[in-house]
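Field notebook, page 351. I keep forgetting to write these up properly, so this time I am using the form the group agreed on. The chain and the ligand, nicotinamide-adenine-dinucleotide, are recorded exactly as supplied. Prediction of the bound pose follows.
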Amino acid sequence: MKTYFVTGGAGFIGSNFIHYMINKYNDIKIINFDKLTYAGNLENLKGVDKNPNYIFIQGDICNKDDVQKVFSEYEIDYVVHFAAESHVDRSIKEPEVFVKTNVLGTVNLLNVAKSFWETSEGFKAGKKFLHVSTDEVYGSLGETGYFTETTPLDPHSPYSSSKTGSDLMVKAYFDTYKMPVNITRCSNNYGPFQFPEKLIPLLINNCINHKELPVYGDGMNIRDWLFVEDHCKAIDMVINGGRLGEVYNIGGHNERTNIHIVKTVISYINENVDSSVTESLIKYVEDRKGHDRRYGIDPTKIKEELGWYPETTFEIGIKKTIKWYLDNQTWMKNVTSGDYQNYYTKMYGNK
Ligand SMILES: NC(=O)c1ccc[n+]([C@@H]2O[C@H](COP(=O)([O-])OP(=O)(O)OC[C@H]3O[C@@H](n4cnc5c(N)ncnc54)[C@H](O)[C@@H]3O)[C@@H](O)[C@H]2O)c1
């Protein structure tokens, strides 16, 4: 029975990953290690939390004692490292916490895992540290071309720069100590359990509440969208089959402009829920500082080496996603209570 140490498993992608793995395998143990920041929510784990193969431990990846305690208590086989500060807008306002969590927290995890996994004959067999990263480390594309694993790293925001710093430290542990690692770099995810400061759940929440829909700049920035379950499937495949020390890009060639996403959400809600929700809610706001224009992933390597392919098209995934948020309005109310309103007003005003 393999034991997975999943950091950040109460966040958006981490919680989807835990659901995916617990549904797929009955011979694994999952330890969800999460600090429960504003972005972490144990409600996301409803259903798996009663599974005897699932354990939740509240802890901070920056705290050596917290992490060591788990490694002392359990024989950890895989670290799947999602925990991070993940919101670009917050990173522009408060870069320090991104460096602390994303860079120093990752180094702390690497050190503890190394100290438990390394022997005088090298690393114990069957161990792996999988670092979940982002396409944002590559910077911004022009109108053509795609990010491959060898595209030079050229991050622009404090968020993407801190992720790049952590990627390079993971690489250093492979190059220097031969620690068994992989890095995955995925494009923008969408799906259930995403905190509504991110574009798609924010739009849905605002539509339901007849609030303005803030759109940065001219709305023509392009993101490459992947349904979160396809990301989870890719991570599972990289853990089990990824060549040690390698980077794998993950993306499904679903490039859409932000304004296309906004209009898609409006039209679904207009047709299915509330015909008073129209494009008149759109409000163009001052562009994000240093806003990357276009991201686009070339997933050839993971397709050819591991046979991964995305199963959910954007057209199906976006409908499933909007429907999930509409069906889970109590979840939405719970996560947007308290501090969220202050955050929202600070970012976009109160309309
Ligand atoms: N969301 C995307 O579209 C996307 C795309 C590619 C890569 N990623 C990467 O995937 C990972 C997960 O992203 P997400 O969108 O699920 O993020 P999220 O913000 O929804 O979740 C982050 C989780 O990490 C936890 N956390 C934060 N600081 C911690 C600490 N010090 N110790 C322990 N736990 C801590 C939070 O409580 C939360 O549960 C991140 O590393 C992110 O960079 C995200």
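OBSERVATIONS:
- The mean pLDDT is 97.
- The first strand starts at residue 2 and ends at 7.
FOLLOW-UP: compare against the apo run.
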